[in-house]
Amino acid sequence: MAKPATAGWISLQNKRLLFLLLLVFSGSTALVLFIRGGLDSCDPRREGGRVAPAASDRVQLQPPAARVQKSPLGFMRSKLVLLVSHELSLSGGPLLLMELAFLLRNVGSQVAWITNQKSEDANEVTYSLEHKMLNRGVQVFSAKGQEAIDTALKADLVVLNTAVAGKWLDGVLKEHVSQVLPKILWWIHEMRGHYFKLEYVKHLPFVTGAMIDSYTTAEYWKNRTHERLKIQMPQIYVVHLGNSRELMEVAEDNIARRVLREHIRESLGVRSDDLLFAIINSVSRGKGQDLFLHSFYESLQLIQEQKLQVPSMHAVVVGSDMNAQTKFETELRDFVSKKGIQDHVHFVNKTLTVAPYLAAIDVLVQNSQARGECFGRITIEAMAFQLPVLGTAAGGTTEIVVNGSTGLLHPVGKEGVTPLAKNIVKLATHVERRLTMGRKGYERVRKRFMEHHMEERIASVLKEVLWKSKSNSRS
């Protein structure tokens, strides 16, 4: 009997290792494999850290017909789609557009990519992202060449990604702008006021439609463009995002989650039964890490004053970047030191490999300030891992989190510090409530925020935009 037991143990360990590796290379957009996927050190096309794409990288076999028919995007087969991104980086907007590129490639669309703002001294990340797209059959070329103009004129659909991408129209198309406007779908993710510049969005009223990630953001754009810029929005389509199949497979595997939980907690130096409240965003004032730490400190004071019995509590700030030496991050660390809570606060460098941290923590804090997040994809990813969410009652978070059911909401600004502190205490002292909220959040994700939901919503938009484009062309 010993041999079968040993074989089973080895099989289990291999499975754990496999999932650990999978998660280490998975990210908040399920696109982290872009980072180094195409950068084999033996690749002869690499010179000086750059990758020179080969012509053969542009070729990819057509997907199986069964896959095309199954996808709601199957009608896009053989359509030519031009995607225009304001930049090519690891930020949310470009990665979302790349997801759309691959969804379209999976159903046999011809997809071309243009990056409008590209540094002459492009870094390795940019080249690796381009290489990954080329390997998947996405054509990548200069935003300013004749090829870009010709493709825009021939394309069945042009997608402008973010408001800033609007500068490409006058800067490159020039006299051809009016020919392309009727087939443009403008995908907007921004919530900040400085994006409302006429030089960016003056053509917005004349495109076929605008796709926006949340109803709150859509209403904001509609009102602000009218009041500040005196222009009208085109037809608006609200499309909530969804979790990738890969992330859901990881989130639903108990072995993978347990292995990662142990691994991350060991790296942070916390115990298995400690309570971890994490905020996962690039460190900046708009994301509210400072107010979160004030709330966390206040929650520790409340627990001490009320003599509550709770496990040791920790705050994890994922998204740190001390190499940038920002004044804001220095303020965060000074606050922690001043309040003497260094043993309870952990700073983790910027990473797209957020799945291990979602497996390791107990509660996600989404503390984005001002108008909140346009959508907040990390929120639905946390809910996939059965985590309750403590979020600001602003932006797209209000369309994701059901207050009192899948999490608790608090006001933005300093007014939200004490309510957030009290919510932290509520979840720290009520284990069953915390677990119930996590389960309900997971159920909500399964019903509304999966990749196939996003595909269906985008497919509905693209069908209407293509129909309108053809009608406009005839007229």
From TrEMBL:
Key words, A-Z: Glycosyltransferase, Transferase
Cited Pfam families: Glyco_trans_4_5, Glycos_transf_1
Span of the signal peptide: none
Domain of life the protein comes from: Eukaryota
Glycosyltransferase is among the record's keywords: yes
Listed CDD domains: GT4_PimA-like (cd03801)
Record keyword Transferase present: yes
Domain Glycosyl transferase family: 262-443
GO molecular function: glycosyltransferase activity
Name of the protein this chain belongs to: Uncharacterized protein LOC105056225 isoform X1
Chain's gene name: LOC105056225
